C-alpha cells in the first residue's frame, strides 16, 4: 500500500467520523471567519496609519514618511 492510499484512507476515515467537515456549513463558517479576519486587519492598518499621521503632525522633527503630505506642510 503506497503512502497516497494510506493518506486517502486516513482522510476518508476522518470524514466518516466527522461529517460536518464535508458539509457546506463548514465552508460557510470558514468564509465568515476569513471575512472577520480581513475586516480586523483593515481596521488595524487604518489605526496604524492614523497614529503615524498624528505622530508626523505633532513631531515634524522626526520624519516617519519619506514624502511630505501637502496637508501636513
Task: Describe, in plain words, how this protein is organized in 3D.
The structure is a single chain. This protein is mainly alpha-helical and 73 residues long. Helices cover 68% and strands 0% of the residues. The chain is elongated. The termini are far apart.
* Main sheet overview: none
Low-confidence stretches: none
What is the helix content?
55-70%
Provide a count of the helices.
2
* N/C terminus separation: 71 Å
Q: What class do helices, strands and sheet pairing give?
A: mainly alpha
Mean pLDDT: 82
Approximate shape: elongated
Task: Estimate what percentage of residues fall within beta strands.
Answer: under 5%
Number of strands: 0
Give a quick precis of the structure.
The protein is mainly alpha-helical. The protein has helices at residues 3-17, 24-58. It is elongated.
Tell me the layout of helices and strands.
Elements: H1 3-17, H2 24-58
Features:
mainly alpha; 2 helices; elongated
Amino acid at each position: 500500500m503506497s503512502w497516497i492510499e494510506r493518506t486517502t484512507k486516513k482522510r476518508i476515515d476522518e470524514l466518516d467520523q466527522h461529517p460536518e467537515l464535508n458539509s457546506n456549513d463548514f465552508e460557510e463558517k470558514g468564509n465568515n471567519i476569513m471575512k472577520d479576519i480581513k475586516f480586523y486587519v483593515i481596521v488595524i492598518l487604518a489605526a496604524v496609519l492614523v497614529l503615524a499621521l498624528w505622530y508626523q503632525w505633532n513631531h515634524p522633527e522626526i520624519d516617519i514618511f519619506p514624502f511630505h503630505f501637502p496637508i501636513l506642510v
